Description:
By secondary structure, the protein is an alpha+beta fold. 29% of the residues lie in helices and 30% in strands. A five-stranded antiparallel β-sheet has the order 1-2-3-5-4. A hairpin with a 5-residue loop joins strand 1 (2-3) and strand 2 (9-20).
Amino acid sequence: xxxxxxxxxxxxxxxxxxxxxxxxxxxxxxxxxxxxxxxxxxxxxxxxxxxxxxxxxxxxxxxxxxxxxxxxxxxxxxxxxxxxxxxxxxxxxxxxxxxxxxxxxxxxxxxxxxxxxxxxxxxxxxxxxxxxxxxxxx
Length: 138
């Protein structure tokens, strides 16, 4: 049992635990029960799992896919513990790395991207990338 910020307690249990040697990670299903409390933040779950499995760097832990059970009191999700942070950066999807603070979101102008996409629709093959061929002046 773990005391949360509020009055209620959180109980975290893992099941279907396996080690994936090809991806260099441990993967498991997370079952959480909580009382007198709303949904638990992922950051808090990450720290508790890092403590449970004695992980040196909390950035190696990734949790996602949480679903609240109807009626409350129970949450089921999925967790990964990578062997190294480099392994996590290599395998984890970009959006999860951004959420965890391991990567930065690339800022771009949506209008310019959409204009470029629509202009490319008018051409075939490599002309989409290189641009249309210039007509020779006679």
